[in-house]
Specification:
mainly beta, 3 helices, 12% helix
Length: 218
């Protein structure tokens, strides 16, 4: 199985969806990450692996770059890629906007939705509670201005197993992802500026992911 430093820049939110052939799936995922980083432009230097679905014909890997664009990739166990394309490619062909249902690889109508909100703490406080309700494929971004040396605390409170969050530092790099380490984060910041906390729901179509983020700065 490959190991590489670039994995820290484009990390997986969903683990392998098939138990057999995990090594083969990982090879395909790694190949898709490398291809996206090489061909996807500046936003593809960081992002998220949304899902991977194994088959004998090839592994379907869904990726989301730093700019929010969703990519569809077919990778193989020998480390090669057969296809890499944005999921809205049909719109460019006059077929109307499409999004991909990453849980099953099926196109569904409508573009992905991302909302951005700036968090401002009330006077005399050092924290805030952000509540949200997201459809599958939706993301909520919270911007928080913080200084180097401060401690950031984030807790995701939800009953949904398909809600995740990621913390991005001002230069766009990934500071933390809950899918890998858990719903609680505490750490000292090393940059000054807007830190972005992205909450993403990857549940079944037609369902909602509800929860809240408890955020404090010390």
């Amino acid at each position: 199985m490959k190991t590489r430093a670039s994995v820290a820049a484009l990390v997986g939110v969903s683990l392998m969806m098939a138990t057999p052939g995990n090594a083969a799936v990982q090879e395909a995922v790694d190949a898709c990450i490398d291809r996206l980083r090489a061909e996807g432009g500046p936003d593809a230097k960081a992002g998220t692996v949304l899902s991977s679905e194994f088959s004998e014909a090839g592994t379907l890997v869904m990726l989301k770059d730093r700019g929010g664009k969703i990519w569809r990739c077919i990778g193989y166990s020998d480390g090669t890629v057969g296809e890499l394309s944005p999921v809205d490619a049909a719109a460019e062909n006059g077929d109307g906007p499409q999004e991909t249902d990453t849980s099953a690889g099926r196109p569904v109508a409508g573009p992905p939705i991302e909302i951005t909100e700036r968090l401002n703490f009330a006077p005399g406080t050092s924290g805030a509670i952000a509540e949200f309700s997201l459809k599958s494929g939706e993301a909520m971004n919270y911007l928080l201005n913080a200084r180097e040396g401060q401690f950031l605390n984030v807790r995701l409170e939800t009953e949904s197993p398909s809600l995740y969050y990621m913390i991005y530092v001002p230069d766009g790099g990934i500071l933390y992802e809950s899918a890998q380490t858990g719903n609680d984060y505490r750490g000292q910041l090393y940059e000054t500026g807007d830190h972005r906390i992205e909450v993403f729901y990857n549940g079944e179509p037609g369902t909602r992911g509800k929860g809240k983020l408890a955020i404090t700065i010390e």
